[in-house]
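Below is how a single chain appears once it has passed through the pipeline. First comes the sequence as given, then the structure the pipeline wrote out for it. We keep one example in the README because the format questions we get most often are answered faster by looking than by reading.
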Amino acid sequence: MRKKQIRAIAICVFRKGDSILVAEGIDVVKGDHFYRPIGGGIEYGETSSDALKREMLEEIEAKINNLNYLGTIENIFTFNGDLGHEVVFVYDAEFVDKSFYDKSSFLGQEDNGATFKLLWKPISDFTNNKLNLVPDGLLDLL
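Resulting structure:
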């Protein structure tokens, strides 16, 4: 996260039945766990949909198709004690390689080498406030 800058990102909701694919995260300052669809930063001169395709290849070596724009969320939040500000382009899409739907969980990798866990979670876990889905407002788009 870049301090004192607005960051444009794209995230993608993948669906499997009544579940969505999310990455686990933790705010170590607050001790809060959260879940977010996979995605990443939009580079200068790149469309949000092209950024999403690139991020899927870089982070989980997956090709995607049938992208569908769901909406945009302005996300102002605190993470690990720092203020963050994002403009989030939200899509849903499908994996070209259908084996991703058969995995209960798998690892992704950030460009800095850090790994993160992805797993399928029922949407009801977020609608009943059992788990925290970010960014705020995402459930309204689903």
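The mean pLDDT is 93.

See the next section for the split statistics.
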